[in-house]
């Protein structure tokens, strides 16, 4: 019997969200060069990371930039969680919104521990904050947060 109960249709990736680096063009914190940031950085210090939507684990891998990263597939949409210290899921696992999927960390190209969060629709990166805001607005009448 499954003991996980879905608490939300859309969940936030962390218990509380503080943006430390925005989406889009910025000067890179390490190189100082103009850089296109494909996601958003949230303050996180080895905190639990949650799946934002129901989905399937498409990859759990390690790259020099993002460190340990989890890519979740939600139809044509992907959410990506980077710089993790520990994954709590495995490839092809089914996850539900609000399920703990990882512990954040400081792996990859970082100055300090934080969570990198990207939202990709097909091949395009979306602004994750706009995405979360829009989707929370749509489901607002169906649930309480
Ligand atoms: Zn980032």
TrEMBL record:
CDD domains: M23_peptidase
Alphabetized Pfam families for the sequence: Peptidase_M23
UniProt-listed InterPro entries: Cell_wall_metabolism_enzyme, Dup_hybrid_motif, M23ase_b-sheet_dom
GO molecular function term, any single one: metalloendopeptidase activity
Residue ranges of every copy of the M23ase beta-sheet core domain listed in the record: 36-128
Name of protein: Peptidase family M23
């Amino acid at each position: 019997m499954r003991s996980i109960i879905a608490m939300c249709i859309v969940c936030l990736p962390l218990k509380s969200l503080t943006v430390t680096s925005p989406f889009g063009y910025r000067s890179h914190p390490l190189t100082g060069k103009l850089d296109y940031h494909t996601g958003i950085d949230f303050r996180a210090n080895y905190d639990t990371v949650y799946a934002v939507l129901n989905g399937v684990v498409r990859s759990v891998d390690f790259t020099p930039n993002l460190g340990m990263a989890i890519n979740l597939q939600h139809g044509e949409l992907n959410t990506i969680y980077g710089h993790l210290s520990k994954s709590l899921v495995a490839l092809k696992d089914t996850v539900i919104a609000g399920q703990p999927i990882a512990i954040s960390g400081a792996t990859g190209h970082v100055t300090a521990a934080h969570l990198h969060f990207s939202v990709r629709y097909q091949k395009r990166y979306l602004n994750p904050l706009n995405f979360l805001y829009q989707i929370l607005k749509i489901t607002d009448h169906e649930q309480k947060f």
